[in-house]
Amino acid sequence: MAVPDPATLDSVAAHAGVSRQTVSNVLRHPDRVAAGTRERVLTAIRETRYRPSLPARQLATRRAHAIAVRAERTQDGISGLVLDAFYHGLAEAGQDNGLRVLLYAQPADEAAEVALIDELVHTGAADAVVLTATSAADERPAHLRESGTTFCAFGRPWGHDDEPHDWVDVDGAVGTGLAVRHLLDRGHRRIAYLGWPEDGADPSTGTDRRRGWLEAVGAASLDGPPVEARSLNQAAAAEVAVAALLARADAPDAIVCASDTLALGAHRAALAAARSARPATVVGFDATPVAAALGLASVAQPIDQAAHLCIDLLTGRFEAPDRPAQGLLVAPVLHLPS
Amino acid sequence: MAVPDPATLDSVAAHAGVSRQTVSNVLRHPDRVAAGTRERVLTAIRETRYRPSLPARQLATRRAHAIAVRAERTQDGISGLVLDAFYHGLAEAGQDNGLRVLLYAQPADEAAEVALIDELVHTGAADAVVLTATSAADERPAHLRESGTTFCAFGRPWGHDDEPHDWVDVDGAVGTGLAVRHLLDRGHRRIAYLGWPEDGADPSTGTDRRRGWLEAVGAASLDGPPVEARSLNQAAAAEVAVAALLARADAPDAIVCASDTLALGAHRAALAAARSARPATVVGFDATPVAAALGLASVAQPIDQAAHLCIDLLTGRFEAPDRPAQGLLVAPVLHLPS
């Protein structure tokens, strides 16, 4: 594109017939400017091809006014909705707080990711990062704290409570507890759990969801010990695992699942095992359209709320860099089939 | 955060023991710098807390070195994978070309979206936008051309070929044609189509996918006219529509679907109608884990390729603003169940 003579704040103001401060307000605090005036200033900005406001503001404030978040390389399409909703929530809450949201492509490993984040932050492209998919073995938080990078994790510091940082997470145990109580209310008495292979070992999303089931089932003092199965997060594998569960003498009459992907497999196994009898009731996790399509209850994560809280923690951190680390757990709800 | 004395390109260079040009290269063309040197410079950048490089470069080049793309407000969780893959592809291809990818939250309507894009571009936050979810009634392309905003659409200018702009799209007709030929090869002779309510009216993704089925079925000169049904993109509605189709005297023995969401409903109707006989074969669209879980063939869009081509068109446009508009159609492939 040809580069015309650069417009200035003053030439835009003259063009729009407003003060220089009004132009500045439109760029920095558009919510403080009446819609009509804002529209006139934006038109003047366009017509004068005024451009450098954001970079100039970045230089003046020494802030990028942007945060970075990872675009996942591959993903479970059934629960993909969760991350999409998280992106939208971040973008929306970010816009409300004058923060852009930058996507970076998931690097090959955690070391490469930390290096990329450092580059984004220390070259002024972003002020902070929202870490997703945290785990007990996650090395990113320690590295980011070491390099002085501002971040908020979507996910708890599983097993690393001695290395505090800001985080937001969904209380999975509350979710599976809701699922169990829903099933008890409907008369189920043998409520099994279908989790992931790693559940029950290191602290993780999986152990948390399993714990909610175990505690709720224990509190109900049902007959017989709790029954459970484990499966990779694939519907076909889940179907095999649940078929085995349903072939046992103490077969469950309901199954709480760690994900809707598992629930899809469990539902298919339940239908196949039932023949003419009433199939076991399956409850999923993530309240995706798949669960809705199958007529299954499913635990819904308040993803939009979690995204907004991540932005709240980051903006609070920008204002008070030395305040203690905060962790926020938000409670899910149970979506019933319509 | 406390603001230390600002580091300069020279102080970073001295700290790293390299030339000022090498530091500049790390920031502008990291691919031209050996990994070891790059690492040393990034460490020096971090240790000296050098920050303003990106904003300074933006001011110097009068470019944001960023593109914007919309974060969808809500979405079909079954095909959500497609947009996630698109985001990842944009972020990856963008990084390869020195372009950041900014997310903006989907505004209330197209007018608000165009205003937001204008603001992003004309305040220097982004150089261009990738438009998603284009349609025949879409007013965004005309508005963006009018305001001189650089953009590339992921999706054809349905019915607006007289208003040319850069776009990339997936050839849906090729995809459904592949599905029909796969079914013919497997001996099917009554291959129906399950599309969306709007298919067959205005040019759209739906009419394109339907056309591929119709042409391939017509070319096979089968007995009897082609049979089809329409449904909202919801599995439950699809199940009802396909149940009616399968109750007809000329019931199909195979169904090509416009989406995996429709395929999920079609598959359930086929299983319910079949009882002891062989159920109708269902082919989906988008090759999601749902189709894989159900053992269905499904058309896979080359989303990563499409994202990379969008970035290619935009970088080409930055270099040659007056070159003619380009449209690129990429061909999908058929994923068979394993």
Molecular structure report:
The structure is a homodimer of 338-residue chains. Chain A has 3 domains: 48 residues, 434 Repressor (Amino-terminal Domain) (Orthogonal Bundle), CATH 1.10.260; 132 residues, Rossmann fold, CATH 3.40.50; 129 residues, Rossmann fold (3-Layer(aba) Sandwich). In chain A, 46% of the residues lie in helices and 16% in strands. In chain A, helix 5 links the parallel strand 1 and strand 2. In chain A, helix 1 packs across helix 2, helix 5 packs parallel to helix 13 and helix 10 packs across helix 11. The longest helix of chain A has 17 residues. Chain A is elongated, with a radius of gyration of 25 Å. The mean pLDDT of chain A is 87. At the A-B interface, helix 3, helix 4, helix 5, strand 2 and helix 6 of A face helix 3, helix 4, helix 5, strand 2 and helix 6 of B.
Layout of strands and helices, then pairs:
Two copies of one chain form a homodimer.
Chain A: H1 9-16, H2 20-28, H3 35-47, H4 53-61, E1 66-71, H5 80-96, E2 100-105, H6 110-122, E3 128-131, H7 140-146, E4 150-154, E5 166-170, H8 172-185, E6 191-195, H9 205-219, E7 228-230, H10 235-246, E8 254-257, H11 260-274, E9 281-285, H12 289-294, E10 297-300, H13 303-319, E11 327-330, E12 333-335
Helix pairs in contact in A: 1-2, 1-3, 5-13, 8-9, 10-11
